[in-house]
Amino acid sequence: MKVLIVGTGGVGQSMAAIAKRRDPNGGWLEKMVMADYDLAHAQKVSQVLGEARFPAEKVDAGNPDEVAALAKKHGAEIICNLVAPNFNPALLQAALKAQTHYMDTAMTVSEKHPSGKIGPCGVKLGDKEYPLSPEFEKIGKTAFAGFGVEPGMADWFARYAADHYFDEIEEIGIRDGSNLEIPGATGISFGFSIWTTIEECTQPAIVWEKDKGWYTIPAFAELEKFWLPEGIGEVEIAHVEHEEVIMLGHNEKHLKGNKKATFKYALGDEFMEAMSIFISVGLDNKEKIKVGDVEVAPRDVVAASAPDPNEVGKKYVGQTAAGTWVKGKKDGMTRQCYLYQVADNQECVQKYDQQIVQAQTAFTSVIMLELLEAGKMAGYKGNPEAGVHNPEEFFADDFVALMPEYEFPGGLMEMDSEYKRAMDHRALTSPLK
Question: Under a CB-based contact definition with an 8 Å cutoff, are residues 255 and 172 in contact?
Fold first, then answer.
């Protein structure tokens, strides 16, 4: 397989490092082009990888013709979008022009309702992506939308739970948190793309219900305690806008009649307060304003001045859990379980020289590429063919089976329910540990 990576930041670097470790002899990965607007940075990444199959190129992610030309130059079969989601429209067009598959880890951005009111949705995440499905169908290619960890792995977990653990589903909730800390540090830090983090934490949160559709609520609403496994413990989680709520609602027919979808994240009081301050003084604004003789977007100023997540993230000590909580019924009994992946930051730094959030995001993408090359994605075991599609539309068993081989094993935590109490006298078997 020949792959074009657009964006050689943390996730792009992590994809290359994980792919190299997984396929050291080029058995299925023939070439992975590392392309970035900053050629010097792309060259540095290429040099660290140290193989001819990871060449560096300069490209403007906002120029579809330029990206398409680069894809054709290298014979790329898929364009992987690892830049901020505001570039999605251009890169989707690039894939259509080059007639390649496309992949991203975050869907097109949302816009608040024109009224400014909480409740009605404006432009939802992905609303500018799904309508392109007929165009991808015409060229016989697939846009793999939301194939990171969240969204991505969490959605594949939802499908896996529907196929194996439930007869009917009442609610699916993505639940994420950690015990990460930088010893001795004060103040907030960004562990992932600053632009994207501000975007999802300053927009109204979104909920989906089968009888109501999608609607917004205040960001950080409905705080609750949630227990995370493998030593992390209890965290306080709150609603945040995220693609999974859109994707799970969009694809509920694959999820045993699911009636509700939510996303809750453990951000911490200090971080939530900082985001509230950003909103109050307009630092979340992505539109340019005039400052002296120049025009600049306040959010871009924050992103440029804050410590680089690629580097500051390597200082964290601790673990993070990403996963999917599912509530429903099995064999006539109520059941709740949490399907998750827990990773240790220092282990990720030692293995891949990448911090935990970026490595977790990237491993799902690389597994998808391996499955695609093996013929186990489009059209396989009832999977959709060409068009714009999300992970929960695809057969999840092969993804789950490969997780431990990628050194990111999944886990299953049974929560208190009629089913668990009935089953406690015997072992529950699952490929998830």
Answer: yes
